[in-house]
Specification:
about 210 residues; alpha/beta; seven-stranded mixed sheet; two-stranded antiparallel ribbon; 6 helices; 9 strands
């Protein structure tokens, strides 16, 4: 569980790469610079931790590409103290980035193996989400709604209506929508019944799975 000067130097270079790719939000860049991504990966793959690529983790899932994490977080427009719902905890890397930015994070994971692992692992690094839940992300988390922002970290073939319903007015849902290739889509709730939709290019994600096992 070491974070050495070498790792920190690699993170700085990663941040420079992300800047060149267009990530401009200072809070996002600071969070990427702070979170020790190598600790979220199997020890044999530490050399890959600060390359801007996705990488396999347990349960046939991936740890998202740093650019994707940064871009989704930037689109979410996170302010300190915002109440954020994350759909797809995965390795917990995106969760840690949100926590580093001062968000209050509720996160849902439907793969039990990943849920158990991340639930144990995040507190060891000092990252404490408000709640980690083993459950179906399509349903959101009505008991804790409304949210300032909702971020979906897997490809959704359609936009789950409960997620839109659980946004505050002014809140944003950042979701990659599509079957094989996803379009990064942002829905901003403008009033009780209206949403503004914006699209931000193609991405590739593992699919968002419905129902828990």
């Amino acid at each position: 569980m070491k974070d050495t000067f070498t790792h920190q130097g690699m993170r700085k270079r990663l941040v420079e790469t992300l800047k060149k790719k267009g990530i401009a939000n200072k809070g996002v860049l600071q969070a990427i610079n702070a979170v020790p991504r190598h600790l979220f990966m199997d020890s044999g793959f530490v050399d890959h931790a600060y390359v801007d690529k996705a990488f396999p983790i347990a349960a046939d899932q991936t740890i998202s590409q740093p650019y994707t994490v940064a871009r989704q977080t930037e689109l979410l427009d996170v302010e300190r103290g915002d109440k954020i719902l994350e759909i797809g905890t995965g390795s917990g890397y995106q969760t840690a980035v949100l926590l580093e930015m001062g968000a209050v994070v509720y996160s849902i994971e439907r793969q039990n193996e990943l849920f158990k692992r991340t639930n144990r692992f995040l507190p060891k690094l000092g990252y404490r989400p408000k709640k980690l839940i083993f459950g179906d992300g399509y349903a959101g988390l009505e008991a804790e709604a409304p949210f300032d922002g909702i971020i979906v970290t897997a490809g959704a073939p359609f936009v789950p209506k409960p997620l839109l319903a659980q946004l505050k007015v002014g809140g944003k849902l950042v979701i990659p929508v599509g079957e094989h290739v996803q379009i990064m889509t942002v829905f901003t709730r403008t009033d009780d019944t209206e949403f503004e939709k914006e699209e931000f290019g193609e991405f590739r994600f593992v699919p968002l799975l419905e129902d828990k096992e």
